[in-house]
Amino acid sequence: MLIYHTSDWHLGRMLYGRSLLPDQEHFLNNVFLPQAERERPAAVIIAGDVYDRQVASLEAIELFDRTLDRLVELGVKVFAISGNHDGAGRMAIMKGALRRSGVYIATTLEETLEPVTLTEGGESVQLVLLPHKDPSELRDFLGDEGLRGETACMEALLARVRPRLDPKLPSILIAHCFAAGASVSESESVFVGGSGQVSPGVFDGFSYTALGHLHGPQAVGDNVRYSGSPLKYSVSESGQRKCFMRLEISGGKIACTPVDIAPLRDVRRIEGSFDELISRSTEDYVELELTDTEPVLMAAQRLRPCYPNLLSVINSWTVNAAGERAGKLSGRDEQSVFSAFMKDVCGLETEDGDLELFRDIWKEVQL
What we know:
This protein is α/β, with parallel strands linked by helices. The chain contains 12 helices and 19 strands. Strand 18, helix 9 and strand 19 (310-315) form a beta-alpha-beta unit. The longest helix has 19 residues, at 21-39.
């Protein structure tokens, strides 16, 4: 039996004000769905954060709808949970009818206590769907106000799930959380979406735990894995591998292999002098870091024709020089600061007319 594990699609995501929907559409229509068409997996697992916002855009919803429709056409079942970015209530619309088409969207903890058994090709596996919930929601559901912390709450919930599983069959837990020991990027934090750290030990007993929440693919324990996001959603992810997981179940054992994803446009950080950078070009999303030791005026405007998807320009000279100037100019009056700026940044000596104009403008600003 073949199953795909993916997560954190974040449909509708923006990157520095740019919509990534064309890139997400490319991933789904030209990478993910063609692979599913070739291999016809028994199921696709989406471990949360299907959307980037709780109130998803119409375009994001339509893209997800088309993707589900194609998977159903291929006879592929879908097991998805709501993540902290998803609007669980909105995702729950029509989920009863969708189940009859083989699309399981779990948004409540009641559904966690109802494992689903999937059988194909002489193999069977049990799937437990645990949507993202904060500790207070877990405590209310469990009726135990004495539980404290994410680990204790999740451990108590899964203690109720395990007796419902057939010990003779392999089991897959689908969850959306931050597992202790996992690596994060700048687009995430230790308490992303209010989710605290969970000890990987709470997943003991499951044959495989399919996690979502963190964007870097990684293992955080025996058979506990993040698939990571299919695309790079911040410059801090520029060095990350992007993939989804291919799970093969044979003889009750689960083997995991990552499948790399080639994006429509990469997200990269590039260093070099202004002259070096302006001699190149790319349509990737880029953050450029200038290594010049002299100021470069209007760098972004001049570089943008070569980099149409330019995200930002960092001038290390400006940062260092600003710190040095601030130290030198501490305690000096506004006129001295203006004169120093004209000399250091513009390379010009201020004349009497310049100073008179500055004083007049400064007075107007002070009014």
